[in-house]
Amino acid sequence: MIASETAANDKVALLFPGQGVQQVGMGHAFFSASAVARATFDEANDVLGYDLARLCFEGPAERLTETEHCQPAVLTTSVALWRAAEEAGFRGDITMGHSLGEYAALVANGSLEFSQALKLVVERGAVTTAVAREHPGTMAAVLGVSEDEVERLCAEAGDVWPANYNCPGQVVTSGLIPGIDRLIELAKAQGIKTRLLEIDGAFHSSIMAPAAECFRDALSSVRIDVPSLPFLSATSVALERGEQLRALLAQQLTAPVRFTQTIYAALDLGVGTFVEFGPRRVLTGLVRRVIPDATTLNVATPDDLPALAALEGRGH
Q1: Fold of 136-196
Q2: Residue 315: which region, alpha, beta or left (left: phi > 0; alpha: psi -120 to 50)?
Q3: Cα-based distances in Å from 210 to 120, 137, 309
Q4: Residue 111: which of 208, 243, 274, 287 has the closest Cα?
Q5: Residue 40 CA to its chain's centroid (Å)
Q6: How many helices and strands (H and E) does the chain possess?
Q7: pLDDT one-digit tens code per residue, 74-100
Q8: Where are the domains of the chain?
Q9: What residues contact 308, with CB distance under 8 A and at least 6 apart?
Q10: What are the pLDDT digits (tens) for 217-255?
C-alpha cells in the first residue's frame, strides 16, 4: 500500500476512462502492432459472441455508441492498450478509473479476470438500460460554478442529482428528463452555462436503484482475486479491495463519481503522474484542471509508448 505521508509525488497512477470516450477506429493501431492487444480483442470476441473488434475499428458510430456495445468496447480497448504497455515494460503504482473505467482498473490490478469484467459490464449495461427505458432520463453538465451551486440547482429543479464531480467548474448532473429540463431553464435564467449530454439514462443517480439491486446478483458469484496494485475508488474516494468490491460496484450505479476528490486523494498518496489508457485525452484533461502541474500522458497508439520510457525509474 502507498503511504499517505510520501514526501515526493513520484508515484504513477494508471487511469482508465468510461463511457463517452468511444470513437470509431479506437484500438486498431495497437491491434495491428501488438500480439497481446490482438489477443485481448480476440478474447472479447469469444466472450461476447460477436465481432467487437470490427465494431471498434469500422463502426458504425451509432452502434458503437449504444450502451450494450459501448461499455465492452471501451473496456476491451483500455485493457488492450494497458496490456501492450505492460508488455513493453511499463508498470504503475495504483489503478483508478472513471465509472465504467473502474472495471479496467480492477483488471489492471489483478482483482478481476478480463473475461469476468466483460461479462459484468454486459450485465451492467443490460440492467441500467432496462431502468432507463422504464424511467427516461438524461444528463447535463453544469459549467463554471462551484459544486455547492450545482447542488443547489439540483435541489431547486427536483428529480436531478450531481452525478460526476469531474473537475473544478464541471459537474455533470443526472435525472429524469423533466428535471433536467427544469435545471437547464433555471441555470439559463441565472446566467449559468449548461451542456446537455447525449446520454439515454439517469446514470449515477437514485433512479438506478432497481438496476443496482439486480446487479448485486451478478456480482455475488464473481471471483475477486488478490490485487497486485492498490485500487483507488472514485465512488468511495478510498483504497478498496477484496469483498468490499462487490458492494462498491453495485453502489457505483447510484452514487456520484467523485473524480475531483479522487485526484486529490491520489496526490495525498504520492501520485504525481497519471497515465490514461484510452482513445482520447479525456481524463488527463480533467486531471490537469484539478492539479495543473501534474504530469499526464495518454496511451492511444503505439506511437505513445516511447513517452512512457521517460517514466523509467518512477513508479512500481
Answers
A1: Alpha-Beta Plaits (3.30.70)
A2: left
A3: 16, 14, 46
A4: 243
A5: 19
A6: 14, 10
A7: 999 999 999 999 999 999 999 999 999
A8: 11-132+206-308, 136-196
A9: 85, 88, 90, 275, 297, 299
A10: 999 999 999 999 999 999 999 999 999 999 999 999 999
Main-chain phi, psi angles of 233, to 5 degrees: -80, 135
Active-site residue list:
99, 204
Query: Could you read off the pLDDT of 20-44 as tens digits, one per residue?
Result: 899 999 999 999 999 999 999 999 9
User: pLDDT: is 264 or 315 the higher one?
Assistant: 264
Whether the Cβ atoms of residue 173 and residue 142 lie closer than 8 Å to each other: yes
Which CATH number does 11-132+206-308 carry? 3.40.366.10
Q: Is the pLDDT score of 315 beyond 60?
A: no
DSSP reduced 3-state for 307: helix
Strands 137-143 and 193-196: antiparallel
Which pairs count as long-range contacts for 287-291, CB under 8 Å and 24+ apart, including other chains?
287/15, 287/167, 287/263, 289/167, 289/168, 289/169, 289/170, 290/167, 290/168, 290/260, 290/263, 290/264, 291/263, 291/264, 291/267
| Residue whose grid cell is 459549467 | 143
3-state secondary structure of 174: strand
C-alpha 129, offset from chain centre: 18
Q: Are 80 and 216 in contact (CB under 8 A)?
A: no
